[in-house]
Protein backbone atom coordinates (compact mmCIF):
# COMPACT_ATOMS: atom_id res chain seq x y z
CA UNK A 1 0.00 0.00 0.00
CA UNK A 2 0.95 3.64 -0.28
CA UNK A 3 1.71 3.74 3.45
CA UNK A 4 5.11 2.22 2.64
CA UNK A 5 5.82 5.05 0.24
CA UNK A 6 4.33 7.65 2.55
CA UNK A 7 6.82 6.69 5.27
CA UNK A 8 9.57 7.59 2.83
CA UNK A 9 8.00 10.93 1.94
CA UNK A 10 6.92 12.12 5.37
CA UNK A 11 9.60 10.60 7.58
CA UNK A 12 12.62 10.97 5.29
CA UNK A 13 11.72 14.15 3.36
CA UNK A 14 10.86 12.40 0.13
CA UNK A 15 14.04 10.34 0.06
CA UNK A 16 14.30 8.66 -3.34
CA UNK A 17 10.91 10.13 -4.20
CA UNK A 18 11.06 9.35 -7.90
CA UNK A 19 13.19 6.23 -7.91
CA UNK A 20 11.14 4.35 -5.33
CA UNK A 21 7.58 5.50 -5.82
CA UNK A 22 6.83 2.89 -8.46
CA UNK A 23 6.52 0.21 -5.77
CA UNK A 24 3.21 -1.19 -4.58
CA UNK A 25 2.04 -3.00 -1.51
CA UNK A 26 -0.18 -6.05 -1.40
CA UNK A 27 -3.07 -5.69 -3.78
CA UNK A 28 -1.77 -2.33 -4.98
CA UNK A 29 -1.86 -1.35 -8.60
CA UNK A 30 1.47 -0.35 -10.10
CA UNK A 31 1.50 3.17 -11.45
CA UNK A 32 3.83 4.96 -13.83
CA UNK A 33 6.84 7.01 -12.70
CA UNK A 34 9.17 8.81 -15.05
CA UNK A 35 12.15 11.14 -14.96
CA UNK A 36 12.88 13.35 -17.97
CA UNK A 37 16.14 15.15 -18.76
CA UNK A 38 15.28 18.40 -20.54
CA UNK A 39 17.43 20.18 -23.12
CA UNK A 40 18.03 23.09 -20.74
CA UNK A 41 19.43 20.71 -18.11
CA UNK A 42 16.40 20.73 -15.83
CA UNK A 43 15.03 17.43 -14.56
CA UNK A 44 11.30 16.71 -14.53
CA UNK A 45 9.77 13.92 -12.47
CA UNK A 46 6.26 12.53 -12.77
CA UNK A 47 5.13 10.11 -10.08
CA UNK A 48 1.86 8.25 -9.82
CA UNK A 49 1.13 5.86 -6.97
CA UNK A 50 -1.80 4.22 -5.23
CA UNK A 51 -2.93 6.09 -2.13
CA UNK A 52 -4.98 4.50 0.62
CA UNK A 53 -6.74 7.41 2.32
CA UNK A 54 -7.89 5.18 5.17
CA UNK A 55 -4.28 5.29 6.40
CA UNK A 56 -3.10 8.75 5.38
CA UNK A 57 -4.61 12.19 4.88
CA UNK A 58 -4.10 13.62 1.39
CA UNK A 59 -3.71 17.19 2.58
CA UNK A 60 -1.07 16.15 5.10
CA UNK A 61 0.86 14.42 2.32
CA UNK A 62 0.69 17.53 0.14
CA UNK A 63 1.97 19.74 2.93
CA UNK A 64 4.83 17.31 3.67
CA UNK A 65 6.01 17.45 0.07
CA UNK A 66 5.67 21.23 -0.18
CA UNK A 67 7.51 21.71 3.11
CA UNK A 68 10.35 19.43 2.06
CA UNK A 69 10.79 21.36 -1.21
CA UNK A 70 10.62 24.71 0.60
CA UNK A 71 13.23 23.61 3.13
CA UNK A 72 15.56 22.50 0.33
CA UNK A 73 15.15 25.78 -1.56
CA UNK A 74 15.71 27.79 1.60
CA UNK A 75 18.95 25.94 2.32
CA UNK A 76 20.07 26.33 -1.30
CA UNK A 77 19.31 30.06 -1.26
CA UNK A 78 17.21 29.92 -4.43
CA UNK A 79 14.38 28.06 -6.11
CA UNK A 80 16.17 24.90 -7.16
CA UNK A 81 12.99 22.81 -6.98
CA UNK A 82 9.49 23.64 -8.21
CA UNK A 83 6.51 21.54 -7.19
CA UNK A 84 4.33 21.68 -10.29
CA UNK A 85 1.47 19.49 -9.12
CA UNK A 86 0.30 17.40 -6.19
CA UNK A 87 -3.01 15.71 -6.76
CA UNK A 88 -4.59 13.18 -4.41
CA UNK A 89 -7.79 11.88 -5.90
CA UNK A 90 -9.75 8.66 -6.28
CA UNK A 91 -7.22 6.44 -4.51
CA UNK A 92 -4.15 7.72 -6.34
CA UNK A 93 -1.52 10.41 -5.88
CA UNK A 94 0.24 12.30 -8.67
CA UNK A 95 3.34 14.40 -8.00
CA UNK A 96 5.09 16.49 -10.65
CA UNK A 97 8.31 18.29 -9.77
CA UNK A 98 11.01 20.17 -11.67
CA UNK A 99 14.64 20.31 -10.51
CA UNK A 100 17.07 22.96 -11.71
CA UNK A 101 19.72 20.31 -12.39
CA UNK A 102 20.66 16.70 -11.85
CA UNK A 103 22.61 17.60 -8.69
CA UNK A 104 19.43 18.99 -7.12
CA UNK A 105 17.52 15.86 -8.07
CA UNK A 106 20.24 13.69 -6.52
CA UNK A 107 20.57 15.79 -3.35
CA UNK A 108 16.85 16.15 -2.71
CA UNK A 109 16.11 12.47 -3.31
CA UNK A 110 19.32 11.29 -1.62
CA UNK A 111 20.30 9.07 -4.51
CA UNK A 112 22.88 8.91 -7.28
CA UNK A 113 21.79 10.80 -10.39
CA UNK A 114 24.09 12.66 -12.77
CA UNK A 115 23.53 14.06 -16.26
CA UNK A 116 26.36 15.95 -17.93
CA UNK A 117 29.63 15.51 -19.74
CA UNK A 118 31.90 12.53 -18.96
CA UNK A 119 34.59 14.94 -17.76
CA UNK A 120 32.16 16.59 -15.35
CA UNK A 121 31.21 13.16 -14.02
CA UNK A 122 34.88 12.37 -13.37
CA UNK A 123 35.38 15.73 -11.65
CA UNK A 124 32.43 14.96 -9.37
CA UNK A 125 34.03 11.71 -8.30
CA UNK A 126 32.01 9.14 -10.23
CA UNK A 127 33.86 5.93 -11.08
CA UNK A 128 34.22 5.70 -14.85
CA UNK A 129 36.17 2.44 -14.80
CA UNK A 130 33.28 0.69 -16.50
CA UNK A 131 32.67 -1.13 -19.76
CA UNK A 132 29.84 0.18 -21.94
CA UNK A 133 28.39 -1.62 -24.95
CA UNK A 134 27.20 -0.06 -28.18
CA UNK A 135 23.40 -0.20 -28.32
CA UNK A 136 23.41 -1.06 -32.04
CA UNK A 137 26.38 -3.43 -31.92
CA UNK A 138 26.87 -5.13 -28.55
CA UNK A 139 30.21 -6.54 -29.70
CA UNK A 140 31.63 -3.02 -29.63
CA UNK A 141 32.63 -1.91 -26.14
CA UNK A 142 34.36 1.14 -24.71
CA UNK A 143 36.16 1.87 -21.43
CA UNK A 144 37.11 4.88 -19.34
CA UNK A 145 39.55 6.50 -21.75
CA UNK A 146 37.07 6.15 -24.62
CA UNK A 147 34.23 7.56 -22.54
CA UNK A 148 36.27 10.64 -21.59
CA UNK A 149 37.20 11.18 -25.23
CA UNK A 150 33.60 11.18 -26.49
CA UNK A 151 33.16 14.83 -27.48
CA UNK A 152 29.60 16.03 -27.74
CA UNK A 153 28.19 13.11 -25.74
CA UNK A 154 26.43 13.28 -22.41
CA UNK A 155 26.63 10.73 -19.65
CA UNK A 156 23.74 9.65 -17.44
CA UNK A 157 24.61 7.87 -14.19
CA UNK A 158 21.84 6.72 -11.90
CA UNK A 159 21.21 4.26 -9.14
CA UNK A 160 19.31 1.07 -9.82
CA UNK A 161 16.39 -0.54 -7.99
CA UNK A 162 16.94 -1.04 -4.29
CA UNK A 163 15.57 -3.25 -1.55
CA UNK A 164 14.21 -1.02 1.22
CA UNK A 165 14.40 -2.28 4.80
CA UNK A 166 12.28 -1.00 7.65
CA UNK A 167 12.64 -2.44 11.13
CA UNK A 168 15.00 -5.05 9.73
CA UNK A 169 12.42 -6.48 7.33
CA UNK A 170 12.02 -6.09 3.59
CA UNK A 171 9.21 -3.62 3.06
CA UNK A 172 9.33 -3.27 -0.69
CA UNK A 173 11.66 -3.36 -3.69
CA UNK A 174 11.70 -0.21 -5.76
CA UNK A 175 10.97 -0.75 -9.43
CA UNK A 176 12.99 0.69 -12.26
CA UNK A 177 11.80 4.12 -13.25
CA UNK A 178 11.68 5.13 -16.92
CA UNK A 179 14.17 7.91 -17.70
CA UNK A 180 13.65 9.96 -20.86
CA UNK A 181 16.85 11.30 -22.44
CA UNK A 182 17.33 14.56 -24.31
CA UNK A 183 19.01 12.53 -27.03
CA UNK A 184 19.48 8.90 -28.03
CA UNK A 185 21.35 6.23 -26.08
CA UNK A 186 24.54 5.10 -27.83
CA UNK A 187 26.46 3.12 -25.19
CA UNK A 188 25.10 1.50 -22.02
CA UNK A 189 26.17 -0.59 -19.04
CA UNK A 190 24.88 -4.17 -18.91
CA UNK A 191 22.17 -3.34 -16.33
CA UNK A 192 20.43 -0.86 -18.65
CA UNK A 193 17.61 -1.61 -21.06
CA UNK A 194 16.83 0.79 -23.91
CA UNK A 195 13.56 1.54 -25.70
CA UNK A 196 13.30 0.82 -29.42
CA UNK A 197 13.75 4.50 -30.30
CA UNK A 198 16.70 4.78 -27.86
CA UNK A 199 15.12 7.84 -26.22
CA UNK A 200 14.34 6.24 -22.86
CA UNK A 201 16.00 3.73 -20.55
CA UNK A 202 15.35 1.60 -17.49
CA UNK A 203 17.58 -0.17 -15.01
CA UNK A 204 17.10 -3.88 -14.40
CA UNK A 205 19.57 -4.53 -11.57
CA UNK A 206 20.87 -2.90 -8.40
CA UNK A 207 23.90 -0.67 -8.61
CA UNK A 208 24.89 2.26 -10.82
CA UNK A 209 23.73 2.34 -14.42
CA UNK A 210 25.60 4.25 -17.14
CA UNK A 211 24.21 5.65 -20.40
CA UNK A 212 26.27 7.58 -22.93
CA UNK A 213 23.89 9.48 -25.20
CA UNK A 214 23.87 12.16 -27.86
Task: Set out the fold topology.
Layout: H1 2-11, H2 17-20, E1 33-37, E2 43-50, H3 58-76, E3 81-89, E4 92-99, H4 102-109, E5 113-116, H5 118-123, E6 132-134, E7 141-142, H6 144-148, E8 154-159, E9 163-166, E10 169-173, E11 178-180, E12 185-188, E13 192-194, E14 200-203, E15 208-213
Parallel strand pairs: 1-11
Antiparallel strand pairs: 1-2, 2-4, 3-4, 5-8, 6-7, 6-12, 8-15, 9-10, 11-14, 12-15, 13-14
Structure summary:
The protein is an alpha+beta fold. The chain has six helices and 15 strands.
Descriptive overview:
There is one protein chain. The strands form 3 sheets. A 7-stranded mixed sheet has the order 3-4-2-1-11-14-13. Strands 5-8-15-12-6-7 form a 6-stranded antiparallel sheet. A two-stranded antiparallel sheet has the order 9-10. It is of the alpha+beta class. The chain is globular. The chain has 6 helices and 15 strands. The N and C termini lie far apart (39 Å). It has helices spanning 2-11, 17-20, 58-76, 102-109, 118-123, 144-148, and strands at 33-37, 43-50, 81-89, 92-99, 113-116, 132-134, 141-142, 154-159, 163-166, 169-173, 178-180, 185-188, 192-194, 200-203, 208-213.
Read across the widest sheet, the strand sequence of neighbours is 3-4-2-1-11-14-13
Radius of gyration using CA atoms only: 18 Å
Helical proportion, percent range: 10-25%
> What is the arithmetic mean of pLDDT?
80
Q: Biggest sheet: strands, sense, closure?
A: 7 strands, mixed
Low-confidence stretches: 1-29, 169-173
Task: Quickly list its features.
214 residues; alpha+beta; seven-stranded mixed sheet; six-stranded antiparallel sheet; 6 helices
Amino acid sequence: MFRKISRVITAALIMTVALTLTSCGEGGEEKASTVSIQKDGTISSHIEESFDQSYYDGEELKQSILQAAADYNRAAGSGQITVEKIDVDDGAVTVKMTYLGSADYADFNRTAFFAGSPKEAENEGFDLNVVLSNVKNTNETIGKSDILAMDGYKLLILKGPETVLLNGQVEYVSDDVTVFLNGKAEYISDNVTVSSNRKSIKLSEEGLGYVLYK
